[in-house]
Amino acid sequence: MRQKLEAEISQTHITSWRMIDFANEYLSYSKERFAKKTFEEKRSAFAKLLKSVTPEMSVSDLNPSLTLTHLRKQDKGRSGNAANKDRKNLGAAWRWAQKYLQGFPLDINPFLVIEKFPEQRLPRYVPPEEDFWPVYEVANGQDKVMLLSFLHLAARRNEIFSLTWDDIDFGNRRIRLWTKKRESGNQEYDWLPMTSELFNTLMRWQEERPIKDVRNVFVCLDAIACNDELNGQPFKYRQHFMKRICMKAGVKHFGFHAIRHLTASILYREGHPVSLIQAVLRHKNPNTTSRYLRSIGLEQVRSGLEEGLKGRYKNI
Predict the structure, then answer these.
(1) What does the mean pLDDT of the chain come to?
(2) 112 in a domain, yes or no?
(3) DSSP string, the chain
(4) Residue 270 is part of which domain span?
(5) Which of 37, 154, 202, 291 is paired with 162 by a 20 to 30 Å CA distance?
């Protein structure tokens, strides 16, 4: 698919590229290449840019003065972080266009020549561990299994929602997690060891699950939340689930991704090195893990998980 798309792009030739043409070509490519969340972020960046400059304007007329004006507007109206995110996405689009669009200007990148804006990032909210277990306690059946999986795998939401029984290797006590959260946008997987608690919980859930003729480990079972069409289908969002269950448990609301942060903070507090936490979080670059730990207010793989999460389990 990628080779076909790039071949089609290479055949596109416009003598004078307009901003709207540039945006449409890159977004068409991005929709097929990147995860939905990444694509929406890129589309939003272009939508804001095309309100600052005329869509019919030639890309040759886009200069650092115009891009600086636009990005300063984002900095003041939104935040430095938002401006930098748009700078990154639009700069990447310009680099892509220079590589693939015939007749596109090959001089300076008018986005990346702009210096990054100062950012004020608040620490991510990570629930204290004592708030996680009341939520776990009020959950039932599949929800309990899912919450424990989030905690013991430090998984992203889509990794858990897309998990299939084929991804669980009970014989070698490991789980395969698929993600698109990589620069290439391709689906990639990593094997992560299962703790004893998670192994036993998933073995039991495989036997006790009410719908056995589906590939996904977690599917919609709630008659209230699911209509007949969705019953037995894998989750996509579970938009209000965590809000409801946190309210029921009487704790401050936190989301699925916050559980990933919680796992990292537990391992850090247990004294495990950044290299191990990097392996659990599956970050390609250790600097990403270091930044990640700082963002939640904190400055070997199977044995580390077993030791760090030992006893952090309650019977279903």
Answers:
(1) 87
(2) no
(3) -HHHHHHHHHT-B-SS-BHHHHHHHHHHHHHHHS-HHHHHHHHHHHHHHHHHS-TTSBGGG--HHHHHHHHHHHHHHT-HHHHHHHHHHHHHHHHHHHHHSBT---S--TTTTSPPPP--PPPPP---HHHHHHHHHH--HHHHHHHHHHHHHT--HHHHHT-BGGGEETTTTEEEEEE--STT---EEEEEEPPHHHHHHHHHHHHH-S--S-SBSSB---TTT--TTTTTSBPS--TTHHHHHHHHHTS----HHHHHHHHHHHHHHTT--HHHHHHHHT-SSHHHHHHHHHHTT---HHHHHHHHHTT-----
(4) 129-309
(5) 291
